[in-house]
Write a structure and sequence with these properties.
By secondary structure, the protein is mainly alpha-helical. It has helices spanning about 1-20, 25-40, 50-75, 90-100, 110-120. It has one domain. The chain is built from 5 helices and no strands.
C-alpha cells in the first residue's frame, strides 16, 4: 500500500511540478495539503480536490521517508546535476527509461531508483 501511495503521489508531484515548476514546497504548503490527509484518516468525506491534496501530502512524506532510509544506507550516495530548466516531464521520462532498461532496479526502494536513474543521466562534472 505504501508503494502504491508513493507511486501515485510521485505522479501528482511531477504533474504539479510541471505546472508550477518555480513554486517551492514550503511548510505552509505541507500544512495545507496534509490537513486533507489528516481529515481523510479521521473518516471525513472529502471533495475530489482534497483527495488530491491528501495524496500529495502522503506521497511527499513517503518520499522523504524513502530518502532518509536511502541516505542511511548509501555510501557514497549517487550524485546527479540536473540542469535547473529541466522539465519534470523529462525527469519522469528519464526515470521510466532507466527502469525499463535496468529491470533489476525495479524492485529497489523508489527513491533509490530515481537517484540512480538521475545519476546515470545527469552526472556531475568532475570527480565523484
Amino acid at each position: 500500500m505504501k508503494s502504491l501511495i508513493a507511486v501515485l503521489a510521485l505522479g501528482l508531484l511531477l504533474a504539479a511540478s510541471q505546472v508550477q515548476a518555480a513554486e517551492q514546497i514550503t511548510g505552509a504548503t505541507l500544512l495545507e495539503q496534509c490537513r486533507a490527509a489528516v481529515a481523510r484518516f479521521e473518516g471525513a468525506a472529502l471533495p475530489p480536490e482534497s483527495n488530491i491534496a491528501s495524496a500529495f501530502c502522503l506521497g511527499y512524506l513517503a518520499g522523504v521517508e524513502h530518502l532518509y532510509t536511502f541516505m542511511q544506507s548509501a555510501d557514497p550516495p549517487p550524485r546527479f546535476c540536473l540542469p535547473a530548466d529541466t522539465p519534470m516531464g523529462q525527469v519522469a521520462r528519464t526515470v521510466t527509461t532507466y527502469l525499463r532498461t535496468h529491470p533489476e532496479r525495479q524492485q529497489v526502494n523508489g527513491i533509490t531508483a530515481v537517484l540512480l536513474a538521475l545519476g546515470e543521466a545527469y552526472p556531475c562534472p568532475g570527480p565523484r
